[in-house]
Design brief:
Heat Shock Protein 90; 3 helices; alpha+beta; about 170 residues; single chain
């Protein structure tokens, strides 16, 4: 590159749209210290929804990781909200913490990394993970399809996570 040439400035990607509100049948639980109730509620709701044992345990692991981040990185309580939506179970964790990296959890942490493994794991075991974070706090939604045609319990789609694409008219 010569002195006359300049690299194009990096652009900050636009903020993702707000998440739609939870379903009318949502169950909520606020936690401050004890994650045992969070795990028990997720497992109970996963079984009621019809998730197989392996996928139910994956969802418990994912929600537990996100809820533990509330305890580890914020001084606020966290709120777990769970509901059924279009063939899937959705678990949402909200707290007053912030996540600056919009790609948090989407890149595998390096071998020497001291953090970042939890959100990466969440992205590996859930079918879809949605993250929104700003100065008011963080919301992470974890989706698990209740029925995956042609797959036995514990199997994953060959192409990786399911992707939901939505557009507004």
């Amino acid at each position: 590159m010569t002195g006359q040439e300049h690299a194009a400035p990096l652009r900050t990607p636009p903020a993702p749209p707000p998440l739609p509100p939870p379903g009318d049948d949502a169950t909520c639980h606020t936690y401050r210290t004890d994650l045992a109730k969070v795990r028990a509620l997720v497992l109970q709701q996963a079984r009621v929804a019809g998730l197989g044992e392996g996928r139910a345990n994956d969802l418990v692991l994912a929600v537990s990781e996100v809820a533990a981040n509330t305890l580890r990185h914020t001084r606020s309580a966290g709120t777990l909200t769970i509901w059924r939506e279009a063939g899937e179970l959705v678990c949402e964790v909200q707290d007053e913490g912030t996540i600056a990296d919009p790609l948090a959890g989407q890149r595998r942490p390096g071998p020497d990394a001291t953090g970042g493994h939890g959100l990466w794991l969440v992205n590996q075991v859930c079918d879809l993970v949605e993250l929104r974070s700003d100065e008011t706090g963080t919301t992470i939604r974890m989706h698990m399809a209740v029925e995956l045609p042609g797959l036995d319990d514990g199997q994953r789609p060959a192409a990786g996570r399911l992707v939901r694409i939505s557009a507004s008219a």
